[in-house]
Amino acid sequence: MTNGQRQHKHVILRSCIKWSLYASISIWLGVTVFDQIEKHINISFWGHIGAEKERQLSCIKDMYYMFVTKKITDYSTHEWQRDELYTFRSQEGALYKKGTIFVKYLRGLPGDTLEISEKHEVMINGKVVASGFPIFERHGIRVPEKFIFKETIPPHKYYMLGDTEHSYDSRYWGYVDEEDIIGRAYGFFAVDK
User: Fold this and answer.
1) For residue range 62-99, what is the model confidence (pLDDT) as tens digits?
2) Judging by beta carbons within 10 Å of its beta carbon (0-12, 13-18, 19+), is residue 134 exposed, middle or buried?
3) 157-161 sheet: strands from edge to edge
4) Which of 100, 103, 107, 122 could form a disulfide with 130 if both were Cys (CB 3.0 to 4.6 A apart)?
5) Is 102 exposed, middle or buried (0-12, 13-18, 19+ CB in 10 A)?
6) Cα gap 136→117, rounded to integer Å
7) 46 or 170: which carries more pLDDT confidence?
8) Which secondary-structure segment (H or E) carries 33?
9) Are 59 and 52 in contact (CB under 8 A)?
10) How far apart are CA 47 and CA 158, in angstroms?
11) In sequence order, what are the residues at sequence separation of 6 or more whose Cβ sits closer than 8 angstroms to the Cβ of residue 135?
């Protein structure tokens, strides 16, 4: 092997080592950054974002939305924002399996007075925030007596409502437990249907 061939092999070897080092650093950096982002941000997907399953309507005016969710890392210090969107995992329900991701408006906080009148008006602290049970009505289901009540929302429980009459929300399945709330949701892409 000539001296020139040896030098050429060393150049190639150094180049391979250098690019391997760059690739390793890039992978390590990418994984570290992704891990940090994943701890604080979640990108929600299309689909069950506050809708009755039959019609797949979003909780915001008949549009499909995509959301970025800023995760809650410490519930004890989180500043809950009434009337803002939150992403959460559902409980077992008639239309969805447990753990289905929803995005809805936070309407009722712990300590608020929640009342559902005989006229089926949903009131938080005396203010009407929703009216009726249209999903029941459309399917000919009589609203159960237990759905008419007045109580204080318990600690670590939240009342979530959609923004369309078709929204499958807390009117039908009750409170969302604090530990099931993922975080604040921010819509960043919408498609009109």
Assistant:
1) 445 566 778 888 999 999 999 998 989 887 766 777 88
2) middle
3) 41-43, 63-71, 181-192, 85-89, 101-108, 157-161, 176-177
4) 122
5) buried
6) 16
7) 170
8) helix 3-40
9) no
10) 22
11) 52, 141, 166, 168, 172
Q: Is 111 left (phi over 0), alpha (psi -120 to 50) or beta?
A: left
Cα–Cα distances (Å) from 163 to 31, 58, 62, 104, 192, in that order, read 38, 8, 9, 8, 15
What is the value of pTM for the model shown? 0.69
What type of residue sits at position 157?
K
Kindly write down the DSSP assignment for every residue of 52-78, as one continuous string.
-TTTT--TTTTEEEEEEEEE-S-TTT-
Q: Give the span between the Cα atoms of 158 and 176, in whole angstroms.
A: 5
Rounded to whole angstroms, how far apart are CA atoms 17 and 10? 10
For 159, the enclosing helix (H) or strand (E) is: strand 157-161
CA–CA separation, 154 vs 159, rounded Å? Answer: 10
Reference 87, options 74, 100, 77; nearest CA is 100
- Structure tokens given for 121: 């008006």
Token readout for 193 is: 């249907």
Q: Provide the pLDDT confidence category of residue 12 given band limits of 50, 70 and 90.
A: confident
To which residue do tokens 């080592």 refer? 17
Q: Find tokens 């959460």 and name the residue.
A: 88
